[in-house]
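Batch manifest, entry 17 of 40.
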Amino acid sequence: MDRRHLVHFLAVVDEGSISAAARKLGLSQPSVSQTIHELERELECTLFTRGRGMSATSNGRALIGPARSALRALDTARWAIEDVSELKSGELDIGSVVNLAVDPLVDLVKRYRARHPGVTIHIRRVHVGARGFDDLARGHVELLLTEYPPAATGYQEVPFGERPLVAVFPPGTPLADRPMRIEELADRDVISAPFPGAIGRAHMNRLLAARGLGNLVPVLETAHRHAVIPLILAGVGGTILHGTEADLAARLGAVVRPLDVSLPTGHALYYRSDELSPAARAFVALVRESTVA
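Output type: structure tokens
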């Protein structure tokens, strides 16, 4: 078994078929197919079920994490010999829960790419809770962006701390040209969104209770993250968002105002205590800079 076997194996896993993997690798289908057969013969097991596509068997799924870890280890060994101060190449596997793949991940990736354009980044969807940490433990991802406090222990963490909140309301909403006070929400039609990045009803009510005010009753509550901004633009109501999504809403015509309170973000970046690849170390350093800023 060599690097070629692992690269071809993971390409088939990620792309779902021999043909798609071959296109990704710039190789012929017979070449990739032959490599997979060689690997199965060496391991004496079937790694994929064949049909309209290629799905990993239980043996194949067990190999995914170690294969990614092995490739990262090989890259780390190569980078230890080469001049890696500028990170001219490499790969980075980041696992993110769906709710955080836009904010804060988009801005972090943008800044990382500006510094290290030669690094290829793979953003992989992971489950909320302990299952996401399973992917980190098994080496499927090198970094994990998920909720804080964590659902598992034994990992290094970089919490994102507090971030300013932004009130976002439909186009044309008359709002004073100043930071919006939290108590002013009681007089507005508000959309509640119970996921990280938007502020759910419970968070809103805690903020109001701290000012001696009663509970807020939203006009709509949705668990569909991508529906929030269209609902705002359609005039259904406003909500409170963080950074990137608030900026997007403003560009699309929404009325935005900073809020006069901050709130813990409820998420963090996690990684294992063992050696990180240079690409991952650079990303962790960037996140630490962001939390200080």
